[in-house]
């Protein structure tokens, strides 16, 4: 049974991945969708031609990972695509956010993503595609978004190294690194701090970012960066000293 597994499927880019993967991969027998809001996942059924299997899991809970492992062991599916889109960020000074907010980003963005990847890997098909939602925040440290940016640097570094390890198995890993995308992400992110106005001007649309990510993953690219502005940011982060960029960011934002 060929399937896709998509975390963070109840909204934003994860939801868009469900829609586009169902359209682009009609031979899939099931898409396994994971998020906490069950009713949101149920709603997806009416817009998706491929059969959905719903897992209303909190991926910060060890129990959810065990349950996923058990479901995989019982069905022994062949995973064509794994998309790890579950994640959140909280804007604000490190000390102004609660410890739970800060640690929770690591729990979900790093530990949850790693655990789901580890659980799914034995079932990945040769030529399978792993798509990990990192962020352009992975490119350099971000004061006022410190733990989030660090968690996404982890995702980027982990994904690139894993991609190399999996070369012989012909499984590719694509780290998706968008700038701001218009989703519910900001409802959570802005509870204590505000997104800089300049960043909001660069807001991309989820369908475009996801379409590019799927195309880049199909080509086996290790990174997917949407838009000229984010490509420029990536280049700048590679060639300029980060202390210079951090000072610039301090002026612009
Ligand atoms: N939007 C942006 O500007 C942006 C930019 C770069 C990267 N990203 C990254 O892209 C990914 C998708 O974000 P998005 O923009 O689509 O945001 P979103 O609309 O807020 O979606 C986040 C998803 O994560 C799920 N989630 C949150 N906590 C969870 C938990 N404890 N267990 C399981 N699932 C959980 C949410 O579902 P439930 O609430 O139902 O659990 C939701 O489906 C994230 O990793 C984010 O960091 C976003």
Description of the molecule:
This protein is of the alpha/beta class and 253 residues long. The chain has one domain: Rossmann fold, CATH 3.40.50. The protein contains ten helices and seven strands. The protein has a seven-stranded parallel beta sheet with strand order 3-2-1-4-5-6-7, sandwiched between helices. Helix 4 links the parallel strand 4 (78-84) and strand 5 (124-133). The radius of gyration is 18 Å and the shape is globular. NADP nicotinamide-adenine-dinucleotide phosphate binds at residues 8-14, 35-37, 40, 58-60, 85-89, 108, 133, 135, 178, 180-181, 183-185, 188. The site of NADP nicotinamide-adenine-dinucleotide phosphate has 29 residues, from helix 1 and helix 6.
| Oligomeric nature of the chains | single chain
- Percent helix among the residues? 40-55%
The small-molecule ligands in this entry are: NADP nicotinamide-adenine-dinucleotide phosphate
The tally of strands reads 7
GO molecular function, one term: oxidoreductase activity
Protein name: SDR family NAD(P)-dependent oxidoreductase
Family: Belongs to the short-chain dehydrogenases/reductases (SDR) family.
Organism: Diplocloster agilis
């Amino acid at each position: 049974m060929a399937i896709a597994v998509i975390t963070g499927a109840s909204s934003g880019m994860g939801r868009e991945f469900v829609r586009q993967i169902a359209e682009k991969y009609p031979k899939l027998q099931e898409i396994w969708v994971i998020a906490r809001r069950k009713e949101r996942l149920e709603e997806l059924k009416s817009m998706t031609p491929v059969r959905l299997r719903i897992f209303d899991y909190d991926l910060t809970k060890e129990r959810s990972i065990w349950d996923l492992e058990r479901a995989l062991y019982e069905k022994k599916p062949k995973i064509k695509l794994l998309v790890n889109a579950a994640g959140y960020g909280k804007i604000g000074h490190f000390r102004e956010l609660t410890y739970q907010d800060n640690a929770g980003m690591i729990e979900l963005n790093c530990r949850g993503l790693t655990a789901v990847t580890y659980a799914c890997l034995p079932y990945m098909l040769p030529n399978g595609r792993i798509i990990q939602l990192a962020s352009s925040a992975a490119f350099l440290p971000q004061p006022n978004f410190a733990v989030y940016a660090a968690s996404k640097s982890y995702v980027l570094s982990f994904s690139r190294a894993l991609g190399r390890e999996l070369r012989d198995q012909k499984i590719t890993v694509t780290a998706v690194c968008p700038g701001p995308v218009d989703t519910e992400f900001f409802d959570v992110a802005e509870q204590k701090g505000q997104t800089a106005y300049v960043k909001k001007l660069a807001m991309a649309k989820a369908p475009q970012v996801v379409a590019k990510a799927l195309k880049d993953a199909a080509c086996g690219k290790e990174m997917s960066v949407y838009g000229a502005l984010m490509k420029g940011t990536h280049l700048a982060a590679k060639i300029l000293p980060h202390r210079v960029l951090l000072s610039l960011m301090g002026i612009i934002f």
